[in-house]
Amino acid sequence: MIEIGLGIVGCGGIASVHADAARRSGFRVVACWDSQPQRAAALASKVGATASKSLESLLAHPDVNAVAVAVPTDAHASCAQAVLAADKHLLLEKPMALTVAECDTICAAADKSRGRLQMGLVCRSSPTSQHVARLVHAGTMGPLDFIQARGVRRRGIPGLGGWFTTRSRSGGGCMIDVGVHLMDLALHLAGWPRVLRVSACAASRFGSPIAQYRSAEMWGGPPKVDGTFDVEDAAIALLRCEGGLSIEIDVAWATNIPEGVARDGLLLRGARAGIHFEIFGSEVRSVVERDGELRDEVAAVPSPFGWDAAWDAQYRCFGELVHGRGAAAATAREGRELQRILAAFYESAALGRETEVR
Ligand SMILES: NC(=O)c1ccc[n+]([C@@H]2O[C@H](COP(=O)([O-])OP(=O)(O)OC[C@H]3O[C@@H](n4cnc5c(N)ncnc54)[C@H](O)[C@@H]3O)[C@@H](O)[C@H]2O)c1
Asked: Against a cut of 0.90, is the pTM above it?
């Protein structure tokens, strides 16, 4: 198979995950660019690529036909537009942008470009999620009434004091960062019903004062004590969908929950069956009524599963898109739809009441 030349824009924490998955999946990383040149140089030397001096020079590299954009959210729209204007294929990290208006500019650029766009919503590409998607889409569960999606860290605020925790750069806290994955996967499994209304509760309790935060895990570097924390660190959302389904999203970067009492993953409750799974897990638990009895079952997900397998599947799909042989794993329109729901989430949290998704 002909290798696809990939440029990586933004060489921070997630960029190496992109580079590794891309290289396992039919891509060659040929150029890297970061606004901090030493980061581009470090990634480029690790993967045998060129460290570009600017986004323009990365896009002018003769071997770059596709680009992964993994910069802070406030730079998504400008980078995405530049990549698409250069007619390169684009894998754009989640969330799509800061606002629905920015998403519109990206969608317009994608419509004009010869490059194709795939959103980086990797949880959908997890083999476990795909296994469940096949069951749900085959009608095994009957109509879905409730989906409960949970992704709760007890202490895991990313890059405290930096862009992740500065609303003007990130658009929000744990809901737009982690919750967007859960929202996307729940809606994808449910077949994208229209979300009508959102009721949101958000707390901001652990990130400030920054000096007092004790981290268990710290994605994105040590806390910047003089930085900003003006976003939510825990949140719950209830999404009411057309047709009666409701989706509850329970997400936290930091919260006090005793170990083991609340399982991460998605719980789908349908008329004929219920299913629980962890997104990168090895098994799917289900309950079904048969001959008047409730039968609980645990099915193993065929190997490979897990985080790396999901990233590889995301890149294989992107490769097929670039070769013109397949559809995006997640589309720009879906990225925009998630942004609309996130906007309603933040409006509802600020107002303290349910709001319409406009
Ligand atoms: N899919 C996932 O599971 C996942 C996980 C983590 C992060 N992400 C997403 O990836 C993106 C990056 O996150 P991260 O954790 O790598 O952040 P990071 O802060 O570790 O890295 C961001 C990099 O972008 C660089 N940068 C900042 N502004 C730039 C600009 N205008 N142009 C070029 N480079 C710029 C920074 O110097 C930094 O090296 C975000 O959109 C985030 O939401 C996705």
From this structure: yes
